[in-house]
Amino acid sequence: MSRGMSTNLIEKLPDDAVDFFCDKAHFHISGVVHKQNMRYWSGANPREIHQRPLDGDRVTVWCAISRIGIIGPYFFDEDNCVVTVNSERYVAMIQEFFAPALEELNAGLVWFQQDGAMAHTARKSMAVLREMIPGRLISLRGDISWPARSPDLTPCDCFLWGYLKAEVFQHRPRTLQALKDAIHLEVGRIPHDMLDRVMRNIRISDNSSHHLQDILFKTM
Question: Most buried residue, 68, 149, 156, 176, by CB count within 10 Å?
Answer without folding.
Answer: 156
